[in-house]
Specification:
Layout lengths: L4 H10 L14 E7 L7 H19 L8 E7 L4 H15 L3 E3 L4 H13 L4 E3 L15 E3 L4 H15 L4 E7 L2 H16 L3 E8 L7 H9 L4 E5 L3 H14 L5 E3 L6 H6 L9 E6 L3 E2 L7 H12 L9 H21 L4 H9 L4 E2 L4 E2 L14 E5 L8 E2 L4
Parallel strand pairs: 1-2, 1-3, 3-4, 4-5, 6-7, 6-8, 8-9, 9-10, 11-15
Antiparallel strand pairs: 10-14, 12-13
Helix pairs in contact: 1-11, 2-11, 3-4, 5-6, 11-12
């Protein structure tokens, strides 16, 4: 779905932003892309990257933004916060990018967000740790995915209210994200009257998670909640559950439904009773249809031969939306300065993305609508989208 010039102008009018007559900058628009394309936590970034590349190619094929082509400057952080710091400093000082999309992992974002703020670099990211968004401390940073609190609320409500389960085990990886997510989830479950029977941080490369599964079972857990993007760790949890014959639900992170999980399972039934955070924009209705905007996007991806079988549609859609949010800000203002881009985002209301309808203000940089978050059935994936979880 290439951005047409008339669509960008309509978007600018919708946002109430006048299009000034300015001297046109020359050269490409450079978008820095902090991507964990390799390593244990690479699955999301691989999906995001497909959306990023698709959006850039589509916009360029339609004539670019005010005649300027988009150049994506990618840096593979390998999921390492230190590498992410080095990469972002390179993007700012040497590559001289106009805006940054990413990182995709919260552990990395915790390390680079202050650096991006000091440089006043316009930054969009999908990282969920709540503290990463603070318009006073980080006026340049905007979130285009739900916060971890939004995810956790959905998982906790489904476990306790829908499934009626109040004894849970919590597993997270050892990254900054996994540690923060498990701690926050434990506090919220406890506050709501549940019992956290067992919790653990597991190295995403640990080859056998059976000892932790046994401890959780022996502690009386009736459900397992998993907070990690590492599909290898997820598959080992599901395989161990099957081997132990422990028929409890597994809930949590959207990566529970990643297509890569299917290929790592010892048997298909290991994916039964697995419920993940999902999104209305990427969910099939009773007739098996996606929302119209998502349906059209999937069709366009198919024409471009973008593979969805081994990834999640929301990852691809969010990468696409990030590039288009940057392009729309530059088209509307005619400038690539931080003040122009950040100012445009601060005036965004119900931006019609594929993944969600984003809204920001000077005091609210969490842009994803709460009613867009649902629970999905992990083994129902088709083209990266899902059916809703039972009930």
């Amino acid at each position: 779905m290439a951005i047409q010039r008339r669509g960008l102008l309509a978007g600018a009018a919708l946002l109430g932003v006048a299009r000034p007559v300015l001297a046109q900058p020359s050269g490409p628009i450079r978008i820095g892309w902090l991507a964990s394309l390799t390593g244990a936590a690479s699955a999301p970034a691989i999906g995001f990257d497909r959306g990023v590349q698709f959006a850039a190619a589509s916009i360029n094929a339609a004539g670019g933004v005010r005649g300027r082509m988009i150049e994506v400057v990618t840096r593979d952080t390998q999921g390492d916060p230190t590498k992410a710091v080095n990469a972002v400093q390179d993007l700012i000082s040497r590559a001289k990018v106009d805006a940054v999309w990413g990182p995709t992992n919260s552990g990395e974002s915790l390390a680079v967000t202050p650096i991006l703020a000091r440089a006043r670099m316009p930054n969009l990211h999908p990282c969920v740790v709540d503290s990463l968004i603070d318009p006073a401390k980080y006026p340049n940073a905007f979130r285009t995915a739900p916060s971890n609190g939004q995810w956790d609320d959905a998982v906790r409500a489904y476990a306790m209210r829908t499934l009626g389960l109040k004894q849970v085990a919590l597993f997270g990886d050892t990254t900054g994200y996994g540690t923060t997510a498990v701690a926050a989830s434990a506090a919220a479950f406890t506050k709501d009257g549940a019992t956290v029977s067992y919790q653990a941080q597991i190295d995403a490369n640990q080859p056998d998670v059976t000892p932790d599964m046994l401890r959780a079972r022996d502690a009386g857990a009736k459900a397992i909640v998993v907070w990690t993007v590492a599909v290898g760790m997820i598959s080992r949890v599901l395989n161990a559950r099957a081997t132990l014959g422990w028929d409890v639900p597994v809930l949590g992170h959207p990566a529970l439904g990643a297509g890569e999980v299917r290929g790592l399972l010892e048997k298909p039934s290991s994916w039964d009773k697995v419920y993940m955070v999902g999104y209305r924009s990427c969910s099939f209705d009773a007739a098996g249809k996606l929302p119209p905007r998502s349906e059209a996007f999937v069709a366009d991806l198919g024409k471009a031969k973008v593979n969805l079988a081994d990834t999640l549609l929301w990852w691809v859609a969010a990468g696409n939306d990030a590039v288009r949010l940057i392009a729309t800000a530059i088209e509307a203002t005619g400038a690539t300065t931080p003040d122009a881009i950040i100012g445009n985002w601060n005036g965004t209301r119900d931006y019609p993305g594929v993944f969600g309808a984003y809204s920001f203000s000077p005091t609210q940089h969490n842009g994803y609508p709460q009613d867009g978050v649902v629970m999905s059935q992990a083994n129902s994936q088709k083209d990266g989208a899902f059916t809703l979880a039972p009930a």
